[in-house]
Amino acid sequence: MLPVLKGVAASILFISYPYMVYKGMESGIDWLAPLIFSGVFLHRAWFARTLPKRVLNMLVALALLLGAYYVQSVTAKILPVLVQLALMVFFSRGLFGVKDLTFIERVVLLQFPESPPAISGYCRRLSWVWSAFFAFNALVSVLLATAGADYWWALYNGVLIYVLMGVLGIGEYIYRRIYFVGPRILHQGIPDPVTTMKALFINGRKVFLEMKER
Fold first, then answer.
1. What is the DSSP letter of 190?
2. Which ranges does the record mark as transmembrane (predicted)?
């Protein structure tokens, strides 16, 4: 139960990050958000199980701490870019190896262990779509962080990204029902949205933790 609560708290903190940065810049304390997240990464470094992860989290914490002192606004606005790039790398893992499985493939296999090869091909193409989506978000975030107004940076990273994620997710679900209705590849039937979200939350977290340990 505790890991779930920690995950929820981390998600809330991350979602509210653009708002925190925007209000901080309005109040002249744009160093506050990087300082808070420096503490978060120090906490992650302290409880990291392996030395490389401990060192990586410590370096991120140090970079945020230095940025909070020297280049407050740029440091505050660059963190969402790093997150989008990390998601891009995570979703693209397995795409460049014939026998490697992507995150989406692993999640689907937990729900449908005997799924045919056509499902795997669909999941790999979907992994490309999500990877491109996160790369696009990173590019837009960089442009807004360096040349855009603070308001538009906060609006995109705090609201529009999640709206686009919802649109992409709903669009994929509709396309999936059209794509698989003819061949009847899934003899179990295509899960409804609620079942899909439950499976994604349960299996996705399990797969994420497994891939994170590799």
1. P
2. 7-25, 31-48, 55-72, 78-96, 128-147, 153-175
pLDDT band at 119 (very low <50, low <70, confident <90, very high): confident
Which two tokens mark 123?
A: 């999941």
Tokens of 14: 């991350």
Give the predicted TM-score (pTM) of the model: 0.82
Residue 107 class from Cβ within 10 Å (0-12 exposed, 13-18 middle, 19+ buried)? buried
Q: How far apart are CA 162 and CA 155, in angstroms?
A: 10
One-letter amino acid at 25 equals M
Cα gap 98→92, rounded to integer Å: 13
Q: For residue 152, what are the contacts with CB-CB under 8 A and spacing of at least 6? A: 144
**Interior/surface letters 31-65, b for 16+ CB within 10 angstroms, e for the rest:** bbbbbebbebbbebbeeeeeeeeeeebbebbebbb
Domain ranges of the chain: 79-212
pLDDT in tens, 27-70: 777 788 888 888 888 888 888 878 888 898 888 888 888 887 77
